[in-house]
Design goal:
Oligomer: heterodimer
Radius of gyration of chain A: 18 Å
Shape of chain B: elongated
Distance between the termini of chain A: 33 Å
Order of helices and strands of chain A: EEEHEEEH
Strand content of chain B: 25-35%
Largest interface: A-B, 43 and 39 residues
Largest sheet of chain B: 7 strands, mixed
Number of strands of chain A: 6
Chain lengths: 129, 1005
């Protein structure tokens, strides 16, 4: 269960929130002029990245405000929460090696449950430092 | 003899009290402080189960929740029936009744044991291969297999116990109350941090409770005394909460940890308080977590290692030192490491004869060797057990020399009734792995330990690969301090306790399977799932190179114990068979829950009436008194029908619907969603969310609207009244209210923040009585204080008026659900019941009839009015509903407008809403039935034209009516189609318009 920082209320439990789809998709204003193709892109097509995803959340059992979140969908790490209308901040996170690969840690996936030799060495060096 | 295996002294049991209990119908005795397992062992009962697949006799192997085999059924009376309970995890209470499972007719004579003799016919993957055949094959065999293989029976009665769940935040959650956990809690608690320390068993102390009386001394105190002192210190700290009998079963995202606390399971049934829940689920959000979950010994894998009496060395030590029980009288130790020596020495001190130590290694450490010699135990190096004897308990074993992995003769025989095995220790990394931390392989101890953390946690003590007491205390202290500091607290200096301890080397000799003389060795790896080393090798031979695949093929590590003692051995055997190092093979996934959690604890208070929230209207009590049948609509409980004495459902429905058309009838419409829309841009806003125009709707008037999604599909409908130029009263469907409000808030906040509009949900502010029928004006004029105002001539359709009723303000809408004369009275919710009763007082002489949602559906179907969710399913446009009249393409932008001209939505062959009439007016179609084109149903696949969405017998029209979504319906008027039936010939129907009331009114009259 996530711990989500509502930009208006602060840190709250996920049970107060509802997911509200991908963020930063502005509703077109000149819809009459749009091709079927362009309109259907807006209505139906969403990116579904493994990695950093900008998504909207709704504080349904709180202030009832919608806001944006950057989340690493490979690891469920919440990287930023910010208001509607604001630009996504720069974030850094462990990204999957390839679109179908895994982040080095955090996904709980088979491929990254056990540290391999080189990683053990690097980790030990880092913790000593 | 009673308690034949009870030691004369020692342990944490209360010998002054005796508890009697029943095991397989036999009455036995134990003491407070015992577990069921220790009490059974005290009575010499070591065989407690038949195994899962082969029905082999199985005994107690571990002393705690790691035990793989001792699953029993506890029967504590009606509904309190817990199968698959670990005897080692169940505290003894007076009158406890337990029985063995998976054995029929009895534990000692079990018919299913034939599976063992036939074992060579049941290799790994047997079920998959055998029953993968033709479809239906599995269906045939499944009941037989389920009966033969498996665990305990499910309970057959409703669970009478209460459960509860609580939420807690804390600064530091310490999981595990052994030496490391106690020190961590002490260090963190001393800083003032809010600390929760949870311990799975009944007492704090962990392995210190399994230690001998005075070994090791901690700060000069005996281990048990040090534990008591530390626990007392923690008890003095206001911000430290101590939980025993509490298991952390799941480590979830963002430091969310689930604990389950057993509150009354250890008490005699009669002594369980009615005011306490049986178990409590703790949902904890911790700033930092200290994992001090200890380590679990692993057994050695050799031929016939599953015989009752073969036990982990650490378990025998725990039974002796914590429970005062000798698991056997003549023990032998089989080990690959030094720690086993300690257990053997402790058993000698407790009075058990330890005949021999058989060590696979060339030599133990000097410390271990001295320990053995000082306890007069003969040590034999480079020895391997090749077989064991004894029907229901081991009585003999055979061992041979072991040189460079090969057995060398001659074999020797050893009489023994207890065989201790020690294959090294596995840090209990389950929760660490659940937190998505990464494990690393430790070559010296041949096991996995925590590597890189992912969440805000830290492992300390044995779960971190530190096995000696001094190290556990030091790591616990450091972890507790670090956690408190990370949570923002200043810590105090606390001295590390001084431990007087003979340290033994934790290294274990790598040997995953002891060689065997037998080709098909019964060398069990997973005793719970009956997985042998040969099964794992077969998995590799059949190409299962991934550990996760091998697990699924063999069932290794499945079941309630999740491979606690067996997994690392299995990984070792698989990796050896594949010729790769264990870390390259990796591990299977450690999943929640760590050990079984009762469904009751997870459900908590959410059972029966409190399973889910529900909403009732102010008039609910009246409906209930009237004997209404209720149905759930969204969260609401609505009257479906008011059957009178002796009336059938159909008769009542006909009576209610007839009253609504010929007299006067009343519906509780309070559940309709209501949203107050206010602000200078309210009109513009409505114009954008509904398909029709709202710019010219004058105050005092109402209008029906359809709301679409951006995909052009109908999402909701309802009537909105204009209260003032900048103020509207919107109504929505009962089930859609919350979603409509969310959608509207979404557009206002994100797409049109420039619009000045406020939305307020007013659903529960108003009670609504919908009155319909030709006599409804009479009733209205009787009830309102302004009788003339209700006259239809003075009160046009689709308008509203503010009135008073006995002086109370009310709002009346002249709108209709039914297509007939109708009014809706809205009054403040708290007067709803009063109004309803008053209406019946005045309406009695007029024959006022209450009607429910069933008649409401029938009435609006007569008029061809849609119900969102019945005629629509999220794939239906206004045009599909033949409601093009409500779409104003010229008014400008509205939600979903552009989608109405997409290539797909303008197709002529979409499904359209049409009416259907049967030839025989008495035949009522089934809702959901499919339409086909031909008189005789062709062989599958059958081309479906659509389906019946609503179907009733209309008493007013004297015939059946139906609405249906039909492919190209608009162009099929007067066509004959057929409605398919599960049995019998398709029913011919004629396509017609949807307004039956207008079409058949004359005929009806």
């Amino acid at each position: 269960m996530f711990l989500i920082t509502c930009p208006y209320c602060g840190v709250r439990d996920q049970s107060e929130f509802a997911h509200a789809g991908e963020a930063h998709i502005a509703r077109p204003t000149d819809t009459d002029q749009m091709s079927d193709q362009d309109w259907s892109e807006f209505v139906f097509i969403r990116s579904n990245p493994k990695g950093v995803f900008a998504e909207r959340w709704w504080h349904a059992a709180g202030c009832r405000r919608f806001f944006n979140m950057l989340r690493n969908t490979a690891t469920d790490e919440i990287l930023a929460c910010y208001k509607i209308g604001e630009t996504a901040p720069d974030v850094s996170t462990e990204l999957p090696a390839t679109p179908c690969g895994e982040a080095i840690i955090g996904s709980g996936n088979d491929a990254v449950k056990v540290m391999q030799e080189d990683e053990v060495e690097a980790h030990e060096k880092a913790s000593q430092a | 003899m009673s308690q034949s295996h009870r030691l004369a002294a020692g342990g944490l049991i209360d010998r002054s009290k005796t508890l009697s209990f029943t095991w397989n119908g036999q009455s036995l005795e134990g003491h407070p402080g015992d577990t069921l397992a220790s009490a059974l062992l005290a009575n010499g009962e070591i065989m407690v189960a038949r195994s899962f697949k082969y029905h082999r006799p199985r005994g107690i192997v571990g002393a705690g929740s790691e035990d793989p085999a001792g699953l029993v059924t506890i029967d504590a009376g009606k509904g309190r029936f817990d199968s698959n309970t670990l005897a080692t995890d169940q505290e003894l209470y007076a009158g406890l009744t337990a029985k063995a499972q998976n054995a029929w007719p009895s534990l000692s004579f079990d018919v299913g044991a034939i599976n063992d003799a036939l074992g060579r016919f049941f290799p790994a993957g047997f079920y998959y291969k055998t029953f993968m055949g033709p479809p239906g094959n599995w269906m045939l065999f499944e009941p037989v297999i389920r009966k033969a293989a498996g665990l305990g029976d499910p309970p057959s009665e409703l669970d009478p116990d209460q459960y509860e769940s609580v939420n807690r935040h804390c600064d530091v959650l310490v999981i595990g109350g052994g030496p490391a956990g106690l020190m961590a809690a002490k260090a963190a608690g001393a800083s003032g941090a809010r600390v929760i320390l949870c311990e799975e068993t009944a007492a704090f102390g962990g392995q210190l409770l399994s230690a001998a009386e005075n070994d090791p001394l901690i700060d000069g105190l005996a281990p048990k005394a040090w534990v008591a002192k530390t626990e007392a210190e923690l008890g003095q700290m206001d911000e430290v909460q101590l939980l025993t009998r509490t298991t952390a079963f799941g480590y979830y995202g963002h430091n969310f940890v689930g604990l389950v606390e057993k509150i009354t399971d250890h008490r005699a049934v009669a002594e369980r308080s009615q005011h306490l829940p049986r178990q409590r689920l703790w949902r904890i959000r911790a700033k930092r977590v200290v994992l001090a979950t200890g380590a679990i010994e692993r057994p050695l894998v050799f031929h016939q290692n599953d015989r009752p009496g073969v036990m982990l060395a650490s378990a025998a030590r725990t039974f002796a030192n914590r429970y005062g029980v000798m698991a056997g009288r003549k023990a032998t130790l089989f080990t690959n490491n030094d720690f086993g020596y300690r257990a053997a020495a402790d058993l000698v001190r407790a009075g058990v004869t330890v005949r021999k130590i058989l060590d696979v290694r060339d030599s133990p450490s000097e410390t271990a060797r001295l320990l053995a010699s000082s306890h007069d135990i003969e040590v034999r190096n480079r020895r391997a057990i090749i077989s064991t004897m004894g029907r229901f308990r081991i009585n003999q074993l055979h061992h041979m020399g072991l040189e460079e992995g090969k057995l060398i003769g001659p074999s020797e025989t050893q009489d023994t009734d207890l065989l201790l095995t020690s294959g090294g220790w596995n840090p209990n990394v389950a929760l660490f792995a659940q937190s998505r931390g990464k494990l690393k392989w430790d070559e010296a101890t041949q096991t996995f330990r925590p590597g890189r953390s992912w969440q805000q946690e830290q492992s300390a003590g044995a779960c971190n690969g530190v096995f000696e007491t001094a190290g556990c205390l030091a790591q616990g202290l450091a972890a507790g301090r670090a956690a408190a500091e990370a949570a923002g607290f200043k810590t105090k200096m606390i001295e590390t306790p001084d431990v007087d301890e003979e340290v033994t080397d934790p290294a274990a000799h790598a040997i995953w399977q002891i060689p065997s003389l037998v080709k098909k060795a019964a060398a069990f790896v997973d005793l719970q799932d009956d997985v042998k080393a040969s099964d794992l090798k077969q998995a590799v031979a059949e190409g299962y190179a991934s550990v996760e695949h091998a697990k699924r093929f063999t069932t290794q590590g499945m079941g309630p114990d999740q491979g606690k003692i067996s997994n690392v051995n299995a990984f070792g055997i698989l990796a050896s068979a594949l010729g790769i190092p264990v870390p390259e093979l990796g591990t299977t996934t450690f999943r929640q829950p760590y050990k079984p959690v009762t469904i009751g604890a997870l459900a908590g208070q959410h059972v029966h009436d409190t399973f889910a929230p529900y909403r009732t209207t102010p008039m609910h009590d009246w409906h209930a008194q009237r004997g209404a049948q209720f149905e759930v609509v969204g969260d609401w409980v609505r009257p479906r029908l008011y059957a009178q004495d002796g009336e059938s459902f159909h008769e009542a429905l006909m009576r209610e619907a007839t009253a609504a058309r010929s007299g006067v009838a009343i519906l509780d419409a309070s559940t309709l969603g209501k949203i107050d829309v206010r602000g200078p841009d309210a009109r513009t806003f409505l114009n954008r969310v509904y398909t029709n125009s709202w710019m010219k709707l004058a105050p005092g008037k109402c209008r029906y609207g359809l709301m679409l999604g951006e995909d052009g599909m109908v999402k909701d409908d309802g009537v909105t009244a204009c209260l003032a130029d900048d103020h509207f009263h919107m109504t929505t469907t009962t089930g859609g209210a919350a979603n409509v409000l969310r959608t509207l808030e979404d557009y206002l906040q994100t797409e049109w923040p420039d619009l000045k509009v406020y939305l307020t949900s007013t659903t529960e502010q108003w009670a609504v009585a919908s009155i319909t029928g030709p006599k409804s004006p009479d009733l209205l004029s009787k009830i309102v204080d302004q009788p003339g105002a209700m006259d239809p001539g003075a009160f046009p359709f689709m308008t509203w008026k503010d009135v008073t009723i006995s002086g109370l303000p009310a709002r009346v809408f002249r709108i209709s659900f039914t297509g007939g004369m109708a009014y809706e009275i809205n009054i403040k919710a708290r007067y709803g019941l009063w109004l309803w009763r008053r209406l019946f007082d005045l309406g009695g002489p007029l024959g006022l009839t209450p009607y429910g949602t069933e008649a409401m559906h029938l009435l609006r179907a007569e008029k061809g009015f849609i119900i969102v969710g019945q005629e629509t399913d999220g794939t239906v446009t206004p045009s599909d509903l033949q409601m093009d009249w409500i779409v104003n393409q010229k008014k400008g932008e509205f939600i979903g407008k552009r989608s109405l001209s997409r290539a797909d939505t303008v197709r002529a062959d979409r499904k359209h809403l049409v009416g259907l009439v049967t030839e025989d007016p008495q035949v009522v179609l089934k809702e959901g039935a499919h339409l086909i084109e031909t008189e005789v149903e062709p062989a599958p696949p059958v081309a479906m034209l659509g389906h019946v969405t609503s179907s009733y017998f209309s008493p007013h029209l004297g015939r059946s009516i139906a609405l249906a979504l039909v492919k190209s319906g608009k162009s099929r008027l007067d066509e004959t189609l057929y409605v398919s039936q599960p049995q019998g010939e398709p029913i011919p129907v004629t396509v017609c318009g949807t307004d039956f009331l207008s079409a058949f009114q004359e005929a009806a009259e």
